[in-house]
Amino acid sequence: MANGSEGNGYAMQAESQPAPLDASKLKVTLSETLKPMPPLDDLAFGKHMSDHMMVSTYHPVTGWTDPEIKPYGPFVLDPVCSCFQYSTNLFEGMKAYIGPDGKARLFRPDMNMTRMRRSRDRVALPSFDTDELLKIIKKLVQIERRWFPNAPDHTLYVRPTIIGTRPSLGVAASDHALLYVVCGPTGPFFRVSRMLSLMAVSEHVRSWPGGTGGYKLAGNYAPTFMPQAEAAKRGYDQVLWLIGDKITEAGAMNFFIVLKRDDDDLDVYTPPDDGTILPGVTRDSVIRLLQAHGTSTTIEGIPQTVHVEERPVTLSEVAQWSADGRLLEVFTVGTAVIVASVGRIGVEGKDDIELPKHDIQMGPVARAIHKKMTNIQWGREEFEGWSVACE
């Protein structure tokens, strides 16, 4: 009798555990009225959202609700939710592509899910299985297939988001949450036919040692808007974020620099993943491709051997490499932009560092990497299973 009673106790305890996020319980409610498709020339980043979104909520007692894909629309939230008061918000940025075989693909989505777990844990939001979330994302991408723009360099942008919804002003971790995914068509991130200009800024910092710069948290972005507006007033496209003299990121992108060696090989440097930069999916992909160049793959357009290194890079070094004639290229990378060359760096909006001039929009190394990367993303070329079909 004791054994039976004990067994029932364990069963009751198991039943009382908060429910996990479960893709097998996904509900789909399709919109009865579909939105009109916007023209290609109006597809600015993030301007248009598709017909549907995915939603699931977390309660500390009952756990995650059955996820639902339903018509896109607003939420109703308590005015004192943690997300409003304490910025318990995080998101990921992903792109989906239609390959030559007609299949929809995501680019290295496992890395986005890994980073989302890290960010979620950093702000102590309720846990969930990101593998289950990825299954749901693939289903949403398939449902929104008509939203893929039929044009070069145009994709479906996907944004998984989780926000804390604890309805209290108490200064504590949120034990309630809202997990959702939205998506929409997008064209090129920068609609300029020239290289980017960066204004180096040390007065305002984007991140600092021991801070949250290495996590994709919503709270990291708002403090960058004022310095960005000041850079725009001075004629620059983006801010080059410094900690003292040390370069961290450019805008919301990772930073790369290409140098000429005495043996005619190339050195490619990028700031290390030391907690002050976001560990970008595109950044990691560029590093991996450059390391594999000449061995397991070839990046057409880069005839030299490339030596890629994650190391601190200072603005003073960039200026000295330029003066010595070693500096060949500066470029930035990110999910939205993929690869963008830099043609101008201003120091606090005053003196410019002399950068190599190129007759085209991208330097040769940046252009070669961009072509290689997009071939993989669009499924035209295979590399280590990075292009994942939404099946």
UniProtKB/TrEMBL annotation:
Example GO BP: L-valine biosynthetic process
The protein's required cofactors: pyridoxal 5'-phosphate
Molecular function via GO: L-isoleucine-2-oxoglutarate transaminase activity; L-leucine-2-oxoglutarate transaminase activity; L-valine-2-oxoglutarate transaminase activity
Assigned keywords, A-Z: Amino-acid biosynthesis, Aminotransferase, Branched-chain amino acid biosynthesis, Pyridoxal phosphate, Transferase
Reactions it catalyzes: L-isoleucine + 2-oxoglutarate = (S)-3-methyl-2-oxopentanoate + L-glutamate; L-valine + 2-oxoglutarate = 3-methyl-2-oxobutanoate + L-glutamate; L-leucine + 2-oxoglutarate = 4-methyl-2-oxopentanoate + L-glutamate
Family membership: Belongs to the class-IV pyridoxal-phosphate-dependent aminotransferase family.
Protein name: Branched-chain-amino-acid aminotransferase
Organism: Phanerochaete carnosa (strain HHB-10118-sp)
